[in-house]
Amino acid sequence: MKKTRILWVLAAFQLFSRASAQVTDFAPVGAKWYYSEQAFFPPPYGEFPHVVEVVGKQMYQGKLCSKLIGIGTAFPLVPSETVPDPLYVYSQNDSVFFYSLLSGRFELLYDFGAETGDTWVIGGMGTPGGYDSLLVHVDTTSQLLVNGHALKVLHIAFPLLPYEWGFEIVAGVGNTYFLTPDFGLYEGGPMGLRCYIDPNNELHFGPYLCDTTLITVSAPNIETSDNISVFPNPAKDLIHVQIATDVRNCFFRLFHQTGQLVHQTNVRVGMNIIETTGLNPGLYVWEIFHEDKPVKHGRIAIGLK
Predict the structure, then answer these.
(1) Which string of DSSP letters, residue by residue, matches 225-281?
(2) CA nearest 34: which of 259, 191, 254?
């Protein structure tokens, strides 16, 4: 009996040791992130695909890294800004590090183990005006069910200027707007993560297919779209929709970035007030439809500091 107990303790210790030493592979070979990028110059008015792929493992600056590259976009005039090309990353437990050519060392990119109130600093940004690092604050955490997988989501806050980055990070997948923070603001640019695929998973984060399909919609009515304003961004309890031209049959629709429609209402000329107090904090996509044709859309942060 004593021998059996000792063997059980030894087996448990070995299992614990292996589990403690296990390193999560954030970017296995063959993993792909499918993003959408909005066209700067319609027509066509739509969202163009951009894919980031792990093309192999490589020793880089003393670390065994995954090598990520952007493998193109369907529209040559749309810059592929979703990831530096190439990007070398390695993972250790719940943390992901990337090599910064600006700092000449590996910098912390993600802390998937972070909880509400935690912070981390992304260094090596090296942007003008002294913005050489980005402080990330975790406001809340939640779970997102995607294709039967319960995924941890970090709802984050950071200085809105001068970086473009999303307000949600999915553990094991990354930021749903850019993989890495990007300097500068754009009139178009990325519209979010369509899906993520690796040898063991296929996770869909929106209504679009996990492929390189060009998502096109009708060309907007410029007279109408130029007279529509949606503000503030970020929003807290209310969204203001200002329409400066007299239109009929105009609708405002608000989607969570997973593709779920969370609000729809008719809007008229003048100031329209949309209440958002019942919505979970996060990043949303809004669309204005005129006679069932999309005329303007954008992204808005709701309930985030």
Answers:
(1) HTTEEEE-SSBSSEEEEEE-S--SSEEEEEEETTS-EEEEEEE-SEEEEEE-TTSPS
(2) 191
Q: What is the mean pLDDT of residues 254-277?
A: 82
Asked if 123 and 97 count as a contact pair (C-beta separation under 8 A), the reply is no
What is the CB-side half-sphere exposure of residue 4 using CA atoms within 13 A? 1
Residue for token pair 């670390």: 63
Chain centroid to Cα 118, Å, comes to 19
Token pair of 216 as six digits: 């096109």
The string of pLDDT tens digits covering residues 101-158 is 888 999 999 999 999 999 999 998 876 556 688 899 998 999 888 878 889 999 988 8
204 forms beta bridges with 195
Q: How far apart are CA 223 and CA 270, in angstroms?
A: 15
Q: For the segment 114-124, what is each residue's pLDDT rounded down to a tens digit? A: 999 999 999 98
Confidence band, pLDDT 50/70/90 cuts, at residue 59: very high
Copy the structure tokens of residue 32: 């792909």
Q: At 259, is the pLDDT very low, low, confident or very high (cuts 50, 70, 90)?
A: low
Residues with Cβ within 8 Å of residue 274, at least 6 apart in sequence: 238, 239, 240, 241, 252, 254, 263, 265
The pair of structure tokens assigned to 239 is: 């969204």
Rounded to an integer, what distance in angstroms lies between the CA atom of residue 87 and that of residue 155?
Answer: 24
One-letter amino acid at 189 equals: G
Strands 63-73 and 45-60: antiparallel
3-state secondary structure of 226: coil
Give this prediction's pTM: 0.63
23 close to 91: Cβ distance less than 8 angstroms: yes
Between residues 300 and 207, which one has the greater pLDDT? 300
Q: How far apart are CA 240 and CA 184, in angstroms?
A: 25
Max CA pair span of the chain: 86
Q: How far apart are CA 135 and CA 238, in angstroms?
A: 27
Q: Which two tokens stand for residue 67?
A: 């090598």
